[in-house]
Amino acid sequence: MIEILKNLINIKSIDGKEEEKKKICDYVCSLFENNGFFIEKFENNGIYSIIISSKGGKDLDFLFCGHLDVVDADEETWEFYEDEDFFYGRGSLDMKGNCAVMINSFLDNKEKIINCDKNFALMFTTDEEIGSNLGVNYLINKIGFKANMVYIPDTGAGMNKYLKEGKGFIFSEININGTESHGCRPWRGKSVLDTFIDFYEQLYKTFPKASGDEDGWLSTSANIGIINGGDAFNKVMGNLNFKLDIRFNPNNSIDEIEQKLNSLVSKFDNIEFNIIQKFSGFVVDENSEYIKKYLDIIKEYYQEEIKDEKEFGSNDGRFFVPLTNNIIMTGALGYGYHSKGEKVYKKELFDFKIILDKYLIELIYSEKN
Hints:
- By secondary structure, this protein is of the alpha+beta class.
- The protein folds into two domains: 250 residues, 3-Layer(aba) Sandwich (Aminopeptidase), CATH 3.40.630; 112 residues, Alpha-Beta Plaits (2-Layer Sandwich), CATH 3.30.70.360.
- Helices cover 34% and strands 27% of the residues.
- The protein starts with a helix and ends with a helix.
- It comes from Candidatus Vampirococcus lugosii.
- One of its GO terms (molecular function) is succinyl-diaminopimelate desuccinylase activity.
- It is an enzyme of class 3 (hydrolase).
- Keywords: Hydrolase, Metal-binding.
């Protein structure tokens, strides 16, 4: 497992490096060649994905999903090394460490997996860090893969925890149109900033700012992350474009949130509003068959009650919500997501390997009985 992790980290599979994304997928595929697995490769506008399954086809019983892309880093952060407690390097936590465990576990249990009647599969993509539209979304909604159970170890919260519920979101793009004029006679123009300031104030009246995680979980948050406008300091700004990120509790109605947005935008005759992507959120059913099997295993392993987590952000699990209520999201604990000094606890990855081996065996033999 350590050698696999080292090799994965050494491949700089970042956005814009298509040859590196292809290289990392080819490397993973090479580990499964001549082992009895079906290997399928996909390329979609420079994004590479792979499906490695025990039976082939698009109907998968148990799917273990991960992403092999990472965000960029300085040279020091790219380097793989280890000390007594941690593995270091870009992707050690997010999420090449967890991918290495899944690969290793499938290889260690290959004969049992292949001889089982059920279709076990690994799905690895290379665009999670930029939205997953050309990876998981493409494989599920265009190619047509589906699964009865999906396992995604991408939370980084710890193997004694699992993701029980996650916020929904509405990502949108907004354009404000005004009238340009020379900066020396601003009264001859109509600055978009006047509209923006008014919109900004009304946005936070509609979705008041939370003070912390506790009330933030229950509330609907709004964030403007990117603003583009103006092309010269001595011109009245005639156009402004910004991206709006709305997140809401999964028990709230996405239709009601969208209606509030539309109502707000409709107050301005010079605003164009376009929804880029939306998701209603999720709540995991602990009594779902395969989730219950998994929770029983980790309860026994840790000899304690398992802690459920809340997801404020998003992950690839959102694409599987329409397909199955058996979605398990967990992940080895570490620190340094997208930052310098990224690291994952060695014990967490070793625990993950033991837990995953147990879960695979449980799935294999419970299906036979």
